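Quality-control log, excerpt.
Job 1 of 2 completed; input and output follow.
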Amino acid sequence: MKSKSRGVLALALGLGLLAALLLNASEAARACREGLLMCARLLIPSLFPFFVLSGFLNRLGLPGLLGTLLAPFASRLFGVSGAGASALLIGLTGGYPAGAAYIADMAKSGSVSKQEAERLLGFCNNSGSAFIVGAVGIGVFGSVKTGLILYGVHALAALLTGLFFRGKHPCAETQPLHLDSADPALALTESVRQAVPAILSVCGFALCFTVLLAVLDAGGALSALCAAVAVRLHFEPLFFRALITGLFELGSGAAALQGLRPCPETLSLAAFLLGWGGLSVHFQTLGVLSGSNVKGALHLTGRLLSAGFAAGIAYVVGLMIF
């Protein structure tokens, strides 16, 4: 009975969205064009090379090679293998959802177990340095320094979140894959083949949520909601516009932050959105996990924890710098 009710509700929601799309076709088309431009200018250049490189390094044995180096630190702090801890490095440099793609690839190759991979998803899929410093630090606050501070806050929040996903028993190390046993040409070929559908999936979800937000805004629902909440809580409407859009799609939320005055509250909101990633990122993560046996249930919990930690730390830092 419950499944039937969910199906009816989903159908009604779909029909409602179809009607909204037909009534606001021009706004949807404009948003789609802007989304395609965002994919071409930001997502593909920043993510596709990392997708290829992370797959390539994984096939050449990076998890095993780093496993020995990181094992003592990873085992004591997070209860994961050294190979698993390498996912944190990829996630904090490549950005959403490169960390998840790397974890899925490690699980497929047997570098980590299914259970460890699912725990790693909770804190190793993060926003990248290029987006935080470039799009938020410079684009929103007009400061590389503020971007670097936000990146440090984001990394610290990821480490704190990892403590909540600590395993009771440290994961056993897997047998490393040495460079002399791998074919670099084959590894590169397979990495590119895997990266192409992954980046298409990421762009598809980003476009979907960009259009959805444009349709909601065209109907006036988004603006009305932001205004109502702002009046009730005595905040700027633009603040809640950034919050609500960022809950759906990180890029749109970052763009909406522009125009807000630099203050501890704005820095905290930016850190929260970067830690949360948006619903678009969650669907992107599920997309790159498809084909593996890794479930993404802990990813949502991890993003909520990371967003909360980041917001709190950023607010304290903001009190000192603004």
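Job 2 of 2 completed; input and output follow.
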Amino acid sequence: MSITQISIFLENKVGQLAQVCKVLADNDVSLVTLSLAETADFGIARLVVDDTAKAEDVLRRNKYIVKATPVVAVAVPDRPGGMAEVVSTLSAKGCDIEYSYAFALRHGEKAVLVFRFKNNEQATAVIAEAGFATLTENQIQDAAK
């Protein structure tokens, strides 16, 4: 089970992220989580939002380069070692993690780990077999409200 993440390619200069956030806010799109990576010349903002289709549309209309990517969201207890249990299980089964980021739904309750795998289907099967819960986009959006 996967969810959709939006990646936005940005020039590495002051104000770029602020502009993206304003475009989304002006169009009533809420961020659920965001990860930002950068190089010398550009950055990649990875977002999970409450309305993926709308976000893609408004960002493209505002001349942003946008890519939708399937990622896997895994719920774990929000405590030390929550992520370690999942990544240890994935590693033991040979799942290749390309990148990951995390966010808390409610402090002290659940954390959500977002993963991009080389093979999402294999990783999702390993996660399910180990008894970890993957989340749908609706579950993440509902929990983030």
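Post-run check on job 2. The two ends are 22 Å apart (CA to CA).
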